[in-house]
TrEMBL record:
Keywords: DNA-binding, Transcription, Transcription regulation
PROSITE patterns given in the database record: HTH_ICLR (PS51077), ICLR_ED (PS51078)
Pfam families linked: HTH_IclR (PF09339), IclR_C (PF01614)
Keyword DNA-binding attributed: yes
PANTHER family: HELIX-TURN-HELIX TRANSCRIPTIONAL REGULATOR, ICLR FAMILY, HTH-TYPE TRANSCRIPTIONAL REGULATOR RV1719
Location of the IclR-ED domain: 69-252
Keyword DNA-binding: yes
Protein name per UniProt: IclR family transcriptional regulator
Signal peptide: none
Database matches in InterPro entries: GAF-like_dom_sf, HTH_MetabolicPath_Reg, Tscrpt_reg_IclR_C, Tscrpt_reg_IclR_N, WH-like_DNA-bd_sf, WH_DNA-bd_sf
Transmembrane segments: none
Species this protein is from: Mycolicibacterium komossense
Domain of life (superkingdom): Bacteria
Domain HTH iclR-type: 5-68
Length: 257
């Protein structure tokens, strides 16, 4: 019985790793490196998942992709969790009004995952975010604004277990992250001052579910010159207005948890 949660965690990590490489697919060796497991272990799990239809293997390349059962389950869950249709016009307006690229992300445990985006009109763009990319909470503006709006106890629990510095640099150590959480709470929106890629800035605002939990985030990304001190308050106000509008829309349509 003790082994079961361990196996479930491995399977979940494996499915996420496959999803991040869609639609090109993944080799067994790639996946073993992605989830830090031995290749024979990964192959055994993949064969078991394939037998249930959760993954597929193409005969020509031998690469693994998500299977039809994932699509069926996802389509059934979409009625409750997929808010992209509700958010699409808000993202479009946000991109049009600011000229920056607008994104929708959802919290998934200790991460945020990007669900949708709309390109802005300004010709220079940041390419840090794209649909499907995941970041830990506290990393990128969406992850920071979600973390900042969690209750203090949940924030402290997360900071106690998260190890962000090895993957994301010293700026994501506990002390500077606490400072950014405090500033985000004061402003209401988060600012990522090129902490992931030099010259690429981002700002985010939380979208709350019916229980007043920060379940999603709207964000804007662009080049540094577009996020000057004089322009950030305007961008923050646009984000907060859009996040509030989306939260109201979701509450009215009973979409989300």
């Amino acid at each position: 019985m003790e082994e079961r949660p361990h196996v479930i965690g491995r399977v979940a990590s494996l499915l996420r790793a496959i999803g991040e490489r869609e639609p090109a697919g993944s080799t067994t060796s790639d996946l073993a490196r992605d989830v830090n497991l031995a290749r024979p272990t990964v192959h055994r799990l993949l064969v078991a998942l394939a037998a249930e239809g959760f993954v597929d293997r193409t005969g020509a390349t031998g690469r693994w992709t998500l299977g039809p059962e994932m699509y069926l389950l996802g389509s059934m869950a979409a009625e409750r969790y997929d808010i992209t249709d509700s958010a699409r016009s808000i993202l479009r307006d946000l991109a049009r009004d600011t000229g920056e690229s607008a994104f929708l992300s959802a919290r998934r445990g200790d991460e945020t995952v990007c669900l949708a985006h709309e390109e802005g009109s300004f010709p220079l763009r940041s390419h840090v975010l794209h649909v499907g990319i995941r970041f830990p909470l506290g990393v990128a503006s969406a992850g920071l604004v979600v973390l900042a709006h969690l209750p203090d106890r949940e924030v402290e629990d997360y900071l106690g277990r998260a190890e962000l510095v090895p993957g994301w640099g010293a700026a994501h150590d506990v002390s500077p992250l606490r400072d950014r959480i405090g500033q985000t709470r004061l402003d209401g929106y988060a600012v990522n001052p090129a902490l992931l890629v030099e010259g690429s800035w981002g700002m985010g605002a939380a979208v709350f579910d019916r229980r007043e939990h920060p379940a999603w985030a709207l964000s804007l990304t662009g080049v540094e010159t577009r996020f000057s001190p004089s322009r950030r308050p305007m961008l923050g106000a646009k984000l907060l207005d859009a996040a509030h509008a989306l939260g109201q829309r979701l509450a009215a349509t009973a979409v989300g948890p």
